[in-house]
Amino acid sequence: MKKKIWIALFLLFSCSILACSKEEKPSEKPTQAPQPTKVQQQEEKEGEEEIRGDGVVLWTIQDVFGKIPERNINLLNERLRADGYSCTLAIRYIPEEINYYTRLSELLRTGETDIATLSFISFTNEDFGGDEVSMIREGNMEPLGNYFSTEEGQALWNANYEENWEAARIDNEIYYIPNQAAMLPGTYLAFRRDYFTEEEVERVSRDFGELEKILESKELPEGTVPVCWWNNMINNVYMTGHSFVSGVFAEMETGMLKSPFEVQEYKELLEQLHSLYQKGLLVEMDRADRQRTIEAGNFAVWYVGEIDILFEENRDKLFLMHLPYAYRKNSMGAGVSKYAKQKEEALQLLTLLFTEENYANLLIYGEEGKDYKVIDGFACNMRGEPARAFYFCYMTGIYDNVVPAQSDDYPVNRKQSKDEMYYSDARKKNVLLGFHVDDSAFDEQMLSLYNVVQNTQYLWMEENFEEAWEAAAQAFWEAGGEKVMAELERQIEEWKKEKKE
User: In terms of CB atoms within 10 Å, which of 36, 85, 183, 217 comes out highest?
Assistant: First the structure.
């Protein structure tokens, strides 16, 4: 039961809170989690030999969310063969009790997988260690630059936004397709049209401090939450014009590193939140309470952290203020082994799945009219109930070209909604996009800095803000803030030189 609860919670938050909280977080080192026994390896090998054949692409995925129905895979393969393609798909699942990072590294190195999903998740209290950067730096992934220069590769490139690709660039090369289901690049501050004017929203957009003055001038109905807040460290930092790198702030326009406690805009933002909170004008809620509050209409201002069906149902009632954001590392995606036995077929298959909706829908849902049906633009099971296939999208990264379900992010006009985000003036250019920290030189003290600074997002909830701010500033230096900044500056200078070469 505990495992099921954790999986449910993870699915609810994986595209927002988890994805944001892991940005540039120092990677943990691989641990000695259980490894496959010789019997398990032999069984796995025999199973692989049964499915291996000309054109059969083997995709390795961690078995946490269940398995994609074999019927879906068979339907996809039948369609591919009927359309004259040489590639077909087979999936290998690594059991969750096995250290996925270590096992996947071995499979990539030996060419025993063609495609790999880069994600490391555990619900068994084991530390799975590593991330996609350290995995790729082992040298076993195929660089995709040459493929993108081909006509087929250009189609795959066009299936994602340029800054998504740039965020995935590691050591001046792209090795994986960013997971489309794990991207939430922006947020809104949404104002009820029946409580606010456009002029008032414009005032807040120029100066966040105006929000308190405007709210104090309102007589809201009893039981109304003035500001329904969703606290998020990364987005708070973006509002100050900075990004968050291993516990240090970096100016997005220049890349200059700073202690968070040297950034006056950050302190002012937390002070403003503190004042709103102390006056009862701002309430932080968990997801369930926030949803109940929005559904009941008991709010005046809503910090929108997810573009979901609840947001879409309320969109016409709101003035939207798009909060500043920048694209960042997406720590999940699908890549091809440098030693893949079916490398060309693997690239062909990934391109078809990410660019052609008929193939993507067969894999995720099955056959329309027999396995699922579309009602009012949403995928439903044959009983007419909302489809629950998001985890298949999350496992593969295929999302933008599949039929949306009501529980999805971007459930309505997905391409249009994502375009609104991407082409918004709120999107800020981050000059460090594509820089990835190598924390192998970090000692334990330096590694602790990330969490020390992460916890500052809650300072506005402290009764004595100034005292809490000073204590956090002291903790920053005690956690090796100076050493981390010096090491990051060294790495960034090296990265800049490599970019010029």
Answer: 183
The answer to whether residues 58 and 51 touch, using CB atoms and an 8 Å cutoff, is yes
What is d(CA 281, CA 301) in angstroms, rounded to the nearest whole number?
10
- The token duo for 369 is 């009219």
User: CB–CB of 227/282 below 8 Å?
Assistant: yes
Name the burial class of residue 222, with classes exposed (0-12), middle (13-18) and buried (19+) by CB atoms within 10 angstroms of its CB.
exposed
Using alpha carbons only, give the angle 135, 422, 233 rounded to the nearest 5 degrees: 60
DSSP state of 160: S
Residue 422: alpha-carbon gap to chain centroid: 15
β-pairing, 176-178 vs 318-322, is unpaired
Note whether 340 and 114 are within 8 A (CB).
Answer: yes
pLDDT for 182 equals: 83
Are the C-beta atoms of residues 115 and 58 closer than 8 Å to each other?
yes
170, 437 Cβ separation under 8 angstroms: no
Tens digits of residue pLDDT in 146-186: 999 999 999 999 999 999 999 999 988 999 999 999 876 67
Q: What is the pLDDT of residues 137-146, one digit of tens each?
A: 999 999 999 9
Looking at the DSSP bridge assignments, the partners of residue 468 are none
Quick one: pLDDT at residue 133? 85
For 412-428, the three-class secondary structure string (H helix, E strand, C coil) is: CCHHHHHHHHHCCCCEC
Give the integer Cα–Cα distance in Å for 166 and 107. Answer: 27
pLDDT band at 60 (very low <50, low <70, confident <90, very high): very high
